[in-house]
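User: Here's a protein and a ligand (flavin-adenine dinucleotide). What would the complex look like?
Assistant: Let me lay out the input and then the predicted complex.
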Amino acid sequence: MYDVIVIGGGPGGYAAAIRVRQLGAQAALVEAAELGGTCVNRGCIPSKVWLRAAYLKHWIERAGEFGLKAALGGFNPTALVERKNAVAQGIREGMTALLQKNGVTLIRGRGVLKSAREVVVEGKTYEAKKIIIATGSSPVVPEVPGLKEAALTSDELFNAGDLPASVLVYGSGPIEVEMASLLAAFGTKVTLAAPQSRILPREDHDVSQRLGQALREQGVEIITGATLAQVEKAGPGFIARLGEKTMTVARVALAARKPNTDGLGLPDLGLKLNDEGAIPVNARLETAVPGVLALGDATGGWMLSHAASAMGVTAAENAMGRQADFPARLIPRGLWTNPEAAAVGLTEEEAEKQGHEVIVGDFPYPVNGLAMLRGQVDGAVKIISEAKYGEILGVHIVGAGATEIIGEAVLALQLECTADTLAHTIRMHPTFSECMMDAARDAAAWALYLPPK
Ligand code: FAD
């Protein structure tokens, strides 16, 4: 009998199993495929290896701005795929070793819940006092006639030996936007078609607008309010119909995902899924079935690796008798596009809808010294604070270093920091993080390096 059995060895389940052991209990981790899940093998790590290559290509092309004579000799996707595989393998090996060192029992095979205290793997039944479901998500092709044949999923893209000449990227979320940015960087003719009125509809409108503008400048055509109605084979490519508009493309790239909740035995447990097929949980990550908790992509929501991993900590602690709420408002979001983008907390629209009198601080990258000297002036930091106490409610960054700088915004929100306190912090110069301080000064109405309003 284990204290806790975790099903799924992605970032969420892995963190949960180790945390259970740290709290002195017996933990088993069931994994049907490879440790690391989507993140290590098909998601965060592979996409960032490819985006790093795009970034380096960009800077080789701009080397002349720094007096360097450099020319791109070519691109070998196979070598990049090998690097991606090697990095993933290294991470998996580290994970395996750490599980061993922590005394987590790794059970290989597909886990099915027989009851709220029993998991069956390859015909063998394992018992536990608590079960944590961390089964993640998988790519799904939307029900559009003809789309299956044309579909280029992220799984396929990151193992590609060559890239298609033209691609319609259908969707408006962060993965689709990263795919569009990456493909365009390597010379693919990209159309990004968002079903909603803007790309990144869950983000602040300024992030959508600023990143959209940057992508357009990189040659990406963006169509909004576009519903893909049909895809037909046409010679070596496909004709895609988006409302009234048709276009001929080599492939249609997609990143829609579905929680892995089929075949887990959940209906027999009386556990109902929501409309997206995800497992509903409360703030403590408990499901409707006592003793069964769930986390990460299997629960829907933002579907981010660090969210899954942080949920792993909360779920493990709660399984061990603590009563901790998962701080969902502190989940940062990021895109490794050119420029990067990152955000945490409320958008301007959300803050207004919640009834706050909103004060916005904005600081443009072109006024930042490091941005100027490095030639990375595209972007801005936007801080949303409320008028009564000056508390920071959200931070939205488009610009170089955004995915690193956002960490301090997370801390600011966690510590209920005010714009004026952030404005009085001292930053290294020259750094991009000075933009945070300067945006906070703008929110506190004393921006030093912007013209008086
Ligand atoms: P997963 O990582 O999906 O792991 C679930 C594991 O459970 C898998 O290993 C699976 O084999 C196993 N499993 C499933 N069913 C069973 C079963 N019945 N029995 C046993 N094992 C089972 N997030 C970020 O934060 N940053 C990024 O930059 C980022 N980039 C991404 C790029 C792409 C292209 C994609 C697709 C995703 C990206 N994500 C990113 C999202 C991130 O990968 C996921 O949010 C994260 O992996 C979810 O973690 P998880 O532990 O919930 O599930």
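Summary: The radius of gyration is 23 Å.
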